[in-house]
Amino acid sequence: MGQGLSCVPSHEHGLFSAVQYGDLEAVEALVGGDTALLHQTTPYDRQSLLHVAAANGQIEILSMLLDQSLNPDLLNRNKQTPLMLAAMHGKISCVKKLLDAGANVLKFDSLNGRTCLHYAAYYGHSDCLKAILSAAQSSPVAASWGYARFVNIRDGRGATPLHLAARQRRPDCVHILLDNGALVCASTGGYGYPGSTPLHLAARGGSLDCIRELLAWGADRLQRDASGRIPHSVAIKHMHGACAALLNPSSAEPLVWPSPLKFISELNQDAKVLLERALMEANKERERSILNGAAFSVSPSHSDSGADDDISEASDNDLCSICFEQVCTIEVQNCGHQMCAHCTLALCCHNKPNPTTASINPPVCPFCRGPIARLAVAKIKNSDDHDHEVNEISSSKLKKSRKSRNFSEGSSSFKGLSSAVGSLGKMASRGSGRIAADNDWMDKS
């Protein structure tokens, strides 16, 4: 990738070695008052001192160099910036320092035409990815493009950061990008195979976690690449049996987050976390059924860590009045009515993305029929009658609160969702957007 840091013997060699190993005193002694030495580069790769410091995470030396008014966007032989190398190697402190110094997030290298965002996604450094996206929201350069366009920026062969994260099995980065507006059904130009979506690439890489995230955000299991293959076919070709079972068009459709919830203008962040967790739990119940039927099991290496199986008791007043199984965790504002996250999903989520159908009306509160304009985390009272936030309760309360009542023993924690959907009315689905490939692209890695 052009990140090799070659040095030359002599005085310059000592200077680059001191920067690489973080010897600040040696760097200051070698430079002395000769600021021209700060602009030295390695002979072949043309790595500057900033590149070496950023790639090796030497934040003190990087800060010293930037204080000398060095350009944070210096280019090496492959037109990579120090920010790209810091993102590539996951040096978050250097990434933040360079962004604070005004490093340009829209610089493209000459290898694959990739930006720092591509590098962070490809190598799976979610903290660096978050920092770059946060900076882009206030960056004048990104503002000139538009934030949504930046999140979906394509490399020289048509790959977006989401494509790279999905192919490289980076579920955390996939989630961050989707949460920031990455197009889940975008097609590539030439990465992997022409016309591949992130779901095709996740299927090729065999990442169940990436597939879960993409399906929950509305990825289309029937979308075909330029060769006419659906993701299910790709998973079978690469012998990823569990992935193929989930992607089989004949298997149950997953619940999709969050198209109808876009109506809700002020979705409290804590409430969003609860809803996302509930949705993933629901889809994992579906997944277990599919994999059991297909004689596949999910090994720890292929899945997220298991949820806490501890059982928490809840009082009658805490239980959702719709399903009578879950603790009330979500409050509708301004009416104040409460329900569990699972029943909230039943109101607001759909089972199958449908590009031809649009939701006309926002979801309504099932108790007062008023429009849901805002969701927040519900407050409940503990045994000492002190209010506290639901998100401070152990995560097991978000699962089924099993009481010795007339609940069926074998039911899943999401058993009431389908019945709640039927009783409360299904929201029309809003389909996932698709974009055509703009360029022929991407490495068949």
Automatic annotation (TrEMBL):
Positions of the RING-type domain: 320-369
Alphabetized UniProt keyword annotations: ANK repeat, Metal-binding, Repeat, Transferase, Ubl conjugation pathway, Zinc, Zinc-finger
EC numbers, comma separated: 2.3.2.27
Matches recorded under SMART domains: ANK (SM00248)
Ranges of compositional bias, category Low complexity: 408-423
Molecular function per GO: ubiquitin protein ligase activity; zinc ion binding
Region (Disordered), start-end ranges: 384-445
Annotated catalysed reactions: S-ubiquitinyl-[E2 ubiquitin-conjugating enzyme]-L-cysteine + [acceptor protein]-L-lysine = [E2 ubiquitin-conjugating enzyme]-L-cysteine + N(6)-ubiquitinyl-[acceptor protein]-L-lysine
ANK repeat residues: 45-77, 78-110, 112-134, 157-189, 194-226
Biochemical pathway: Protein modification; protein ubiquitination
Record's protein name: RING-type E3 ubiquitin transferase
Species the sequence originates in: Punica granatum
Organism ancestry: Eukaryota, Viridiplantae, Streptophyta, Embryophyta, Tracheophyta
